[in-house]
Design goal:
The chain has 244 residues and is mainly beta. The chain has one domain: Umud Fragment, subunit A (Ribbon). 13% of the residues lie in helices and 34% in strands. The protein is built from two helices and 14 strands; from the N terminus they run αββββββββββββββα. The longest helix has 27 residues. The radius of gyration is 21 Å and the shape is globular.
Length: 244
């Protein structure tokens, strides 16, 4: 009996240590996230699993489980760059994680006119690369256009547009406040982002981290118990893909 008790105690301590290490690793270094919606297509697909670096922009109370750390703003603060794909807490409901592309920095002006993004009064270059079909959130099939969008001083990223006359394809001019950011999804006509009053400007303290790499991806065509279908469901080509 003494051996059993000691064994149980050692197992409990081992689990506690392992759990503590996992929490520290997720809070300070990398945290896994999965993509549940299509707002970042074509960069991120539903069923992608990715690692987010928590250290990229420093830490706020939202960097830690349940917001337990008494941090008012950020520590080890490091400014993000335009074009970064970032996980952040939704302003007004910080229990919800969003992932979008950073478009507007503090003091920038942002506007969309006929689907074209304008930053500080200058249109962002976009180049048509493909035309295809995709179902919208209501299951209706629509023709869409893929573009390469190029921010000044950075590499291109891909975006999708159903048209240039959908919701938020023409907006007011937004002035990004100090210590706030403006985000947009790459699936421009199927994204709830800073163009909407539901999200709006995102405070610096709400930033969680930078999306870095896809470590797993599947298309939901196989259930967990249908192991004989897993090889068809897994998107092997996306595993290990860097996010840009």
């Amino acid at each position: 009996m003494r051996v059993a008790k000691n064994s149980f105690g050692e197992l409990f301590k081992t689990l506690m240590v392992a759990g503590s290490i996992a929490i520290i690793f997720r809070s300070i270094f990398f945290e896994p996230f999965n993509i549940p919606s299509g707002s970042m297509i074509p960069t991120l697909l539903v069923g992608d699993y990715l690692f987010v670096s928590k250290y990229s922009y420093g830490y706020s109370k939202y960097s830690f489980p349940f917001g337990v750390m008494p941090i008012n703003d950020r520590v080890f603060d490091n400014s993000p760059e335009r074009g970064d794909v970032i996980v952040f807490r939704k302003p007004g409901d910080e229990t919800i994680d969003y992932i979008k592309r950073l478009v507007g920095l503090p003091n920038d002006t942002i506007q969309v006119k006929e689907g074209i993004l304008f930053i500080n009064g200058k249109s962002v270059n976009r180049i048509k690369t493909n035309i295809g079909k995709m179902k919208d959130i209501n299951g209706n099939e629509k023709i869409l256009t893929e573009y390469k969008e190029i921010f000044e001083g950075s590499n291109y990223h891909k975006i999708l547009e159903y048209s240039d006359i959908d919701n938020f394809d023409d907006t007011i001019e937004f002035k990004v406040p100090k210590d706030h950011f403006f985000f947009m999804g790459d699936n421009r006509d199927n994204s709830r982002d800073s163009r909407s009053s539901e999200v709006g400007f995102v405070p610096k303290k709400n930033l969680i981290g930078k999306a870095q790499i896809i470590f797993f991806s599947h298309d939901n065509s196989a259930s967990f118990y249908e192991f004989w279908k897993w090889h068809k469901s897994i998107r092997f080509s996306r595993i290990g893909e860097a996010i840009k």
